[in-house]
Amino acid sequence: MSGAAFQAADYGNGNGDGILRFKFDLVNAKVKTVSHNATSESVIADYRLKLYVPWDETNKKADYTSPVSSKVYKKADYLTDKENDPTFYHSVTFMANGEQYGAALEVERRKKATAPQTDPTKTEHKFIEWRLSGETSAYNFDSEVLENIVLVAHFEINKYVITWKDGNNEVIKTESVAYGATPVYEGVTPTKTATPTYTYTFNDSWSPAIVAVTGDAVYTAQFTENLRS
User: Fold this and answer.
1) Residue 182 backbone dihedrals phi, psi, to 5 degrees
2) Domain containing 147: what range?
3) Which long-range contacts (CB under 8 A, 24 or more apart) does 108-111 make?
4) Would you say residue 174 lies in a domain?
5) Number of other residues whose CB lies within 10 A of the CB of residue 23
6) Which of 54, 80, 142, 169 is the most buried (most CB within 10 A)?
């Protein structure tokens, strides 16, 4: 194009982004057209060119010789048309329990994503945080979005207090056990105080019978009576 009046606006500062964005207003730009060996010129007005060029981090300048992409818009259509430009917006998808949680966000490049207003739920689990897919720490919602990302809900299973008692109804151990797991007593051998008539031997059983955890529970050691001779 020739004879264009350009007014540029920088969309990015090149600090780690790798791409600079510029937009130019084209006023009375002359466009040369060649067709069937004949050359003609026409004049256009009120158009906008958006140009993407790589940022040369070493030399701290834009590399105008290798544009990444460019697109011409009618200025009247620019605001709506840019929503379909994949280099301008990124998707943020939330996943919970193996399924998408709510609608994906469309976040303008270098802007910040926001977490869903309502935390996801999972039976007998507590929601802890959102994590980038494959990561083991919480996603920082103050960070800028520079690509399409998937955030996965991280849960921790509920735990319940299991109490173990000896034959004298004294607590000998307490522990937290995850929901659905079957508790196993590991500790000193339970005892029960002898009487003038009987001594007692722990018979490796508990009352009630041990079952998978569904809530807090108390188990009392059971004993075999031994008549004194």
Assistant:
1) -95, 120
2) 89-156
3) 108/145, 109/12, 109/17, 109/144, 109/145, 109/146, 110/12, 110/17, 110/144, 110/145, 110/146, 111/144, 111/145
4) yes
5) 19
6) 54
Q: Does residue 1 lie in a domain region?
A: no
DSSP alpha helix (H) spans, the chain: 78-81
* CA angle in degrees (0–180, nearest 5) for 129-134-140: 40
- Count the Cβ atoms, other than its own, within 10 Å of residue 119: 15
Euclidean distance between CA atoms 94 and 101, whole angstroms: 5
- Which residue's entry shows tokens 């605001």? 79
Closest C-alpha among 92, 84, 67 to residue 147: 92
Q: Does residue 2 lie within any of the structural domains?
A: no
Peptide bond preceding 116: is omega within 30 degrees of 0, i.e. cis? no
pLDDT band, residue 123 (cuts 50/70/90): very high
Q: Which residues pair with 7 in a beta bridge?
A: none
Q: Write the pLDDT tens digit of every residue in 62-78.
A: 666 665 555 554 444 44
- The pTM assigned to this predicted structure is 0.59
CATH number at residue 152: 2.60.40.4270
Q: What is the pLDDT of residue 191?
A: 97
User: How would you classify the pairing of strands 159-165 and 217-227?
Assistant: parallel
Is the pLDDT at 13 greater than 50, yes or no? no
